[in-house]
Amino acid sequence: MDKKLLIKKAFEAREKAYVPYSGYHVGACVLTGRGKTYTGCNIESASYTPTICAERTAIAKAVSEGERDIKAIAITGDSEWTYPCGVCRQVIREFGKDILVIIAKSQEEYREYTLDELLPNSFGPEDLD
Ligand SMILES: [Zn+2]
C-alpha cells in the first residue's frame, strides 16, 4: 500500500473543496482492494444540511463505481490534525472495522488508526444479520 500516494491525492483533493461558508478545506482519498483510488473534498451548501464531508464524497465515488472493498482512507484538513466526524466514521464502518484511516498533517507526517480504534464497539452490517 502506497500511503504516501494516498496522502498526496488527499492533499490534491483538499484544494478542490467547495467551502464558501466555513472556509474549512478537507480532502480524502480511498484505496480499494483492486488498488484503485477515489478522492473526495467537502462540499458545502447555502442551506447547510446538504453539506457533505470529503470522506463521504470519496466513499460515494468508490461505491458508485462498484467498489465495496475499501482498504484505507487518507484524510487531511485545515486543522493540524483533521479527524473524521462521527457520521463519516459510521459510513467508513459500513465497509469494515479494519479499514486503515490515515490522518495526514503533511506529506511526511501522519498518524494511522484502524476504523475500530476511532469507532469502538460500533454498530455495523453484521448486527442486522
Ligand atoms: Zn464527516
From TrEMBL:
<comment type="function">
    <text>This enzyme scavenges exogenous and endogenous cytidine and 2'-deoxycytidine for UMP synthesis.</text>
</comment>
<protein>
    <recommendedName>
        <fullName>Cytidine deaminase</fullName>
        <ecNumber>3.5.4.5</ecNumber>
    </recommendedName>
</protein>
<dbReference type="GO" id="GO:0042802">
    <property type="term" value="F:identical protein binding"/>
</dbReference>
<feature type="domain" description="CMP/dCMP-type deaminase">
    <location>
        <begin position="1"/>
        <end position="126"/>
    </location>
</feature>
<dbReference type="GO" id="GO:0055086">
    <property type="term" value="P:nucleobase-containing small molecule metabolic process"/>
</dbReference>
<feature type="binding site">
    <location>
        <begin position="42"/>
        <end position="48"/>
    </location>
    <ligand>
        <name>substrate</name>
    </ligand>
</feature>
<dbReference type="GO" id="GO:0072527">
    <property type="term" value="P:pyrimidine-containing compound metabolic process"/>
</dbReference>
<dbReference type="InterPro" id="IPR050202">
    <property type="entry name" value="Cyt/Deoxycyt_deaminase"/>
</dbReference>
<keyword id="KW-0479">Metal-binding</keyword>
<dbReference type="GO" id="GO:0008270">
    <property type="term" value="F:zinc ion binding"/>
</dbReference>
<dbReference type="InterPro" id="IPR002125">
    <property type="entry name" value="CMP_dCMP_dom"/>
</dbReference>
<comment type="similarity">
    <text>Belongs to the cytidine and deoxycytidylate deaminase family.</text>
</comment>
<dbReference type="InterPro" id="IPR016193">
    <property type="entry name" value="Cytidine_deaminase-like"/>
</dbReference>
<feature type="active site" description="Proton donor">
    <location>
        <position position="55"/>
    </location>
</feature>
<dbReference type="Pfam" id="PF00383">
    <property type="entry name" value="dCMP_cyt_deam_1"/>
</dbReference>
<feature type="binding site">
    <location>
        <position position="85"/>
    </location>
    <ligand>
        <name>Zn(2+)</name>
    </ligand>
</feature>
<dbReference type="GO" id="GO:0005829">
    <property type="term" value="C:cytosol"/>
</dbReference>
<dbReference type="InterPro" id="IPR016192">
    <property type="entry name" value="APOBEC/CMP_deaminase_Zn-bd"/>
</dbReference>
<dbReference type="InterPro" id="IPR006262">
    <property type="entry name" value="Cyt_deam_tetra"/>
</dbReference>
<dbReference type="GO" id="GO:0004126">
    <property type="term" value="F:cytidine deaminase activity"/>
</dbReference>
<feature type="binding site">
    <location>
        <position position="88"/>
    </location>
    <ligand>
        <name>Zn(2+)</name>
    </ligand>
</feature>
<keyword id="KW-0378">Hydrolase</keyword>
<keyword id="KW-0862">Zinc</keyword>
<feature type="binding site">
    <location>
        <position position="53"/>
    </location>
    <ligand>
        <name>Zn(2+)</name>
    </ligand>
</feature>
